[in-house]
Every structure is written in C-alpha cells, then in structure tokens.
Amino acid sequence: MSKRKPYTREMKADWWRKDSFFTMYIIREGSSLVIALYCFMLIAGLFSLTQGQSSFETWLGFISHPITIVFQVLTLVWTLYHSYTWFQLAPKAANLWMGEKRVPDSWIVNAMYAALAGCSALGLIILFL
Amino acid sequence: MAEIMKMSILRYRPETDEKPVWQSYDVPYNHETSILDALGYIKDELDPTLSYRWSCRMAICGSCGMMVNGQPKLGCKAFLRDYAGGELKLEALANFPIERDLVVDMSDFIAKLESIKPYIITQEPRSLDDGCTTQTPKQMEQYKQFSMCINCGLCYAACPQYGLDNKFTGPAALALIHRYNNDTRDQGKAERMKFINEEAGVWGCTFVGNCSVVCPKGVDPAAAIQLGKVESAKDYVIQMFKPGE
Amino acid sequence: MSRSHEPIFWGLFGAGGMVAALILPIFIVITGLLYPLGIIPAELLAYDRIFAFASSWWGALILLVVICFPLWLSLHRLYHCLHDFKIHAGVRTQTVFYGIAYTATIASIVLVLVL
Asked: Fewer beta carbons within 10 Å, N or C terminal of chain C?
C-alpha cells in the first residue's frame, strides 16, 4: 500500500504581500485603477464640451478642485510607474535584429524614454498652438 | 568552520505529519558551503530522516530546487555565506505538492514538458546521407538560450499564475515551445501552436516576470511567452480568414 | 483544446499600455498641474480653443486615442487582477469589464461626432 500523501500548500489571496517583487507587480497592475478613473474624467470633459461653455467651465472648475488635483498627482505618479515598467519589459516582447546582432535591450528602453519625451513635448506644442 | 548558521527546514513526513512543521538545525559553515552541502551535513551528522533531492552538485541536473528564504533557488548554487548573520529558512519548492520534506511531486510539470512535443519534428524523414543541417549564428541565437533549460522547476515555483491555477502550461514548457518553434531544423510549429493558443497556453500569463529572474541558467521564459503571444495573435488573425478550421 | 479569444483583448491592452505609457502623462500634467496651479495661462484651456481642437479631425483622433485605449488597458488588467485576488470571475464578469471599455469607447466616439 502506498504511503504517499502529497501535501498541497494553499495560496492565499494575499500572496502578493509576502514578496516585494509580487507587491510591485500588483502595484503595476493597480495603476489601471487611476488610469481608468482619469479617462472617465476626460470623457466627462468631452461630454461637458458638447453641453456648451458654462458646462465646460464647471468641468474646468472640477479638475482644479484641490481633491481632484491630489487625485491627478497620484494618477501621474502611478502612470509614470506604469511607463517605467512598460519600458523595462518592452525588450522582452520584441525580437529586433540589426544584421547579425540582436538590438541591445538598453536601446529599446532608451528609445521608449525618448518617445515619452517626444510625445510630452509635442503635447505642449499642440497646447500652445 | 567557525561560523554557525541556524537553518529552519519545513519538514513533512506523510506517515506521521498532518501538515508540515518547522524544525531547526545549527550547521557549521565556511566560505565554500552551499545549501546542498549544509543539507548533507544535517543528513550525515544531525538527522538522517531528512529527505531532499540532489545529484550533480553543479547546477546542471536540476534536482535540488527549493525555497530559500522564500525564493526559489538551486541548493547547489546558493551559499550560506550570502545569508551570513541571518537565518536560513528552507522549504520545498512552492506551487508543487510536498511529497516529503524538501521533495516535491513534479509529475504535473513533467507531464506538461512532455505534452508540448519538445523535440525536433521533421515532415520528411532524414537519412544520414542527407548530411548535417547547417545553421547560421543568427539562426542559432534565436533559440539557444531557451535550450539551456534544465527542467528544475524554479520558474514554476516563481510563477503566481501557475500557483493560482495549475492548468496554466507554465514558463519552462512555453519557453521550450518557443525553443523548438524557432529552430530552423524544426517543422512542428503548426502542431505546437495549439498549445500556445489555448487559454492555458501563453494567455494564462500576466507577465509578472519572476520566472526570468529566478532561472539559474539565464533562460528568459517571460520573453519567450511574450513572443509567443505575438505569434498566437498573428495566428488568430490568420485563422479568421481561413473558415472551416 | 480550444483557441482563446484573448488576442483581441491583448491587442487592445497592448495599444492601451503604449498610449498610457507615452501620451497620457503629458495630459495629466496639463489637466492636473499646469492648468489648475496657474502655471500656464488659463486661456489655453478656454472653451473656444478646446472646442476647436476637439472638433478638428486630428484633435478628435488624439482625444479618442488617449481616452479609449487606456480604458482597454485598465479593464483588461483589472479583470485579470480578479484572478490574482482569487476571485473567480466567469463569462458574465468578463462581459461587464470589457463592456465598460466598449461602452466608454462608443460613448467617446459619439461625443466627438456630436461636436
């Protein structure tokens, strides 16, 4: 008769708190929470834009409210963490070659940061147009 | 042999224990003592009932995987000197059932490795007269690092998605699919795409990325899986234009 | 063995991840810091200017890209987070999560067209 009795350790729902690597993973995924809320805020702005000037100015007042500013600063920090992780992992999802050599990971990461800088500069230029 | 390390080991003896219990040992060590050496000391000098797997002592057989202070490591490739001044807690590899002490039941992992056809498949049988197949350095570079896998299972212990749902094919097996699919000598990609395209294939991965961190052989399963997602997405678009398949 | 339909959502997730990583930050800087703290002249976000921007085809396109894709990123990740937190979600929950992104996308397109 077999004496086998394999013991299965249960993974609890708070598994990600036990290890900093997993905690950072959940924080990375958590950025989607504030990003979604921010996008809904923009949709509200778009809606107010269709309702006329006073409605849009109410929205401008809303985004200038101290609580909304705090929320947006949080969103900015969290979104930039998303950017950081996205850039770090980008080389893994790309198999780029230059002739006989693989494009170094650091090139891809740096190109992503350059693109972030470019998009940001372009955004400001469009704003001031 | 001046230093003494306190090592706590999660013991489980199926014939007597209802659940695993911690047991501590004081182990002398020097600069060269690996965790596997320390386990040998315990087994020989302190407690012959301790069970653990090992063979080559040089990180090639993949037998001595275990959790060292919560991180998956090969016992032969981790050294007590790196934990000096602290305590060592050893536990059987996470996400696998414990068979006894530090020995886990890997049968699910082995079954997955076997299932994905991890060998070169050719449509036409080749004879010796055909000579050897040539490959450029670039062609070899496409799969070489993924062929370094020693099937130790550390990446499965590091993967929360496998821990949450062991239907997930998992890092090593998916990396091995990538290894064969990207070998110019192989023609079995179409057969293996089925394993990739499944929910339990590459799509069970949320890119936690820990598999690539813990791999003792420098394999990057996370990269293989992301490239697998790209392949699967292409395959998905192609099949939309091929009705009846 | 059945093929997963995940490639569709993964594609939208990937586009959203890219947009959120590259373009969203400057939007948040403008609406969350530069404008409310008075660092830039308030006229830059005046109704007429923003209306003109959102009514132009390229302005509308920028707004749709910045609003919709990150929502697909977010709801895709939040849906998978349920599994990470050991909440077993079925097809109905999946429909609700992606349905939110879908509805918001359609709503945004309609709003831009109404302008």
From this structure: N
Which of chain A's residues have a Cβ under 8 Å away from the Cβ of C72?
Answer: none
Mean pLDDT, chain C, integer: 96
Query: Which pLDDT does position C2 carry in this prediction?
Result: 84
Mutation target to probe the B interface, by most B beta carbons within 10 A, among A1, A9, A17 is A9
| Number of domains observed in the structure of chain C | 1
Task: Decide: residue A106, CB within 10 A, 0-12 exposed, 13-18 middle, 19+ buried.
Answer: exposed
CA dist A2 and B172 (Å) reads: 30
Q: Confidence class of residue B1 from pLDDT cuts 50, 70 and 90?
A: low
Number of domains comprising chain B: 2
**Residue B164 and residue B210 in one domain:** yes
Whether C5 and B198 have beta carbons less than 8 Å apart is answered as: no
Domain end position, chosen among B72, B88, B104? B104
Mapped onto helix, strand or coil, the DSSP state of residue A109 is helix
**pLDDT for residue C52:** 96
Q: pLDDT band for position C39 (50/70/90)?
A: very high
| pLDDT tens figures, B154-193 | 999 999 999 999 999 999 999 999 999 999 999 999 999 9
Question: By the CB < 8 Å criterion, does C27 face chain A?
Answer: yes
Q: Write out pLDDT tens, residues B37-55.
A: 999 999 999 999 999 999 9
Report the candidate in B164, B163, B167, B175 with the shortest Cα–Cα distance to residue B212: B175
Instruction: Report C:66-85 residues touching B (Cβ under 8 A).
Output: 80, 83-84
Burial class (CB in 10 A: 0-12, 13-18, 19+), B139: middle
Q: Which of B199, B207, B231, B235 best probes binding to C when mutated, by most C CB atoms within 10 angstroms?
A: B199
Q: Residue B50 maps to which CATH number? A: 3.10.20.30
What residue type is B223 in one-letter code? A
Q: How far apart are CA C95 and CA B83, in angstroms?
A: 49
Domain boundaries, position B90: 3-104
A15/B105 touch (CB, cutoff 8 Å), yes or no: no
Q: Does C110 touch chain A (CB under 8 A)?
A: no
Q: Could you report the predicted ipTM of this complex, rounded to two decimals? A: 0.96
Question: CATH no. for residue B210?
Answer: 1.10.1060.10
Distance separating alpha carbons of residues A100 and B34, to the nearest angstrom:
40
CATH code for the domain of C93: 1.20.1300.10
Tokens of A3: 């004496």
Region A111-124: mean pLDDT is 98
Share of chain B above pLDDT 70, in %: 98
* A30/C contact by beta carbon, under 8 A: yes
